[in-house]
Amino acid sequence: MSIPSFSAFPEIPQRSTPEADFDAKMYALFQHFATTHRQELLAFIQFLENNVTAIEGAINGVTIGLTHPAAAKFTSLAADSISGAAVQASPDDATAGRLMKVGAFGLGGNAQTPPNNDLDQIGAAGGLYYGDGAQANTPPQFGNSLVLHMPRNAEIWTQIAINRGAGDNRIVTRRKTGAGAAPTPWSELVVLDESGRTAQNVEIRNSGPFLAITDADTGVKHTLSGNSTAGHLYIKTDPAENMPNSALLIETQGVRQMTVSRNNVEFTAPIKGELDCWGPVRAGVGAAGANALMEIGPGRTADGPSYLDLIGDTVYHNYGARIIRNSGENGSTTFSARGSGNFNIQSEEPANLVLKTDTRGVDRGAVIDPIGNLRPSSDNAQSCGSGSFRWSQVYAASGTINTSDARTKTDIQDLDAAEHRVAMVAKSLLKKYRIRDAVAEKGDAARWHFGVIAQELAAAFEAEGLDPWRYGVLCWDEWWSAEVEIPAETTPIMEEVEEEITHIVMVEEPVLDEHGAPTGEVQQVEKEVVERVKTQVETGELEILMEARTELQTFASAEDAPEGAEYHNRQGVRYDELFAFILAAL
To answer: DSSP assignment of 336-361, as one string?
Structure first.
């Protein structure tokens, strides 16, 4: 149907007199509207009702909009409102093509109460609903809520509920997936407050779960992850190695207790309780050449004094016992203790207590066996004392036992005539005497001793043409001595400093078009990053571990002795053999 056309208005007669002119005009207009335009207006209204799909305009200041021929009925039109078939019959009327009233589906007004006070029965009418305590199937996470119901149809829908009562900002959601299916339980979403924090307990549940923390400026990514097979928890710091000095820092109340870097574990607070180490524990130089009280693992890069202090009192507050290894390949090792208490080295079980030296050669050492006997670690391999280090006195409940088994001897003979004469002379060489050191210390109170003079006994052998040093009855000992300056054993005093290190890292940035908008592509861009790193540096001051001192040291040979060392020798007698020698001549 085409739009009706309107006929032209009739020609208005020319004026004659004012009255006749007015009457003629009014009559002509009345006749035109009464006959011709009435039919035309009716035809136009019919056209609008049957054919218009959208009308927007203003009639007497009232805006109207009609979207369907069946709804295009001018049933009621008043100022600022419209009603009738073109408008929803109720707030949840979902008839297509009708105008929505203010507040319908909870939009533009208050939220709606769900049908039968049950959030499960909303069906296909989407919108905003109350989820308060009076309604059924409300979220158990909070008492009062607003629920956004989003249906595909009456049996498939999703709901999102937001806490509208007291407490934290929280959001939960659930869904229904089909006819006969029960709605899923309400599940809580992670929500951050205005400070970027969450007050919720968060669980990452997955096969091989992980949480990544990525610095957008440097590209450094740290991960906290789990191993589904072994049940391990991994804390991985910069596994891609973007920052060479990245470390795991553990701090409490602004104080750093531990730093775990690629090559070191540094403790900056005391370790209390038991410390079980299944690997090597080494006190010594750290990877940066700085001295450390304790270093775990083989990280030595340079020589330097190392020490381990044990502190058990407030008097010797810096150390009560100390183990020191001085620097250098042949640096001395000292284990010292302070105070007058016993310095005990003991075994709690029946085991040998062994002191050994030079285990590369003959097994030499002293052993205290489980029943307390003091013995050498090898049979017939070492002496008790030496020519330059003698025992001042030997106390024993019985005499020494010398091996006399025939199976240990060879060339067994009787004394010849010359040896017999020397033995007879030796009997007459027995004299009494006092020891010089005892007289120097005790004066006239020094006691008298009996024996022979080794030089006189040697002369008796020589008088008979015999070499005295071919006989074990005489002994000859020699050594060298010198005063040796021992320098102080020190270690540098360290302090922690913070320095800035600049790195160039590669980061991903979006590619922008000529208008500055992202194109969806990314590019690798070099970026300069400044990192603040704490390191230990020397202050220039030294801590003295052991004071410098002078020691009188002895040397077994001239080759071992320093230049200017004093030569010493001493002659001795084995009295058990001397008495047997004299008795053989009687």
So the answer is: EE-SSS------SSS--EEEEE-TTS
Q: Is 288 helix (H, G, I), strand (E, B) or coil?
A: coil
Q: Is residue 31 part of a domain?
A: no
CA distance 145 to 142: 7
Residue corresponding to tokens 């009345």: 30
d(CA 248, CA 365): 48
- pLDDT band with cut points at 50, 70 and 90 for residue 434: very high
Domain hosting 174: range is 104-189
In a domain, 123, yes or no: yes
The answer as to whether 12 is a domain residue is no
- What CA–CA distance (Å, rounded) separates 509 from 493? 46
Of 300, 361, 377, 295, which Cα lies nearest the Cα of 331? 300
Q: Write down the pTM of the prediction.
A: 0.48
Q: How many domains does the chain have?
A: 1
Task: Report how far apart, in Å, the C-alpha atoms of 274 and of each of 277, 278, 279, 283, 311 are.
Answer: 10, 13, 15, 18, 16
In which element (H, E) is residue 549 found?
A: strand 549-555
Cα 96 from Cα 357, distance rounded (Å): 104
Q: How far is CA 25 from the centre of its chain?
A: 104
| Residue pLDDT, tens place only, 519-534 | 878 888 888 877 777 7
Residue 122 lies in a domain: yes
The residue type at 235: I
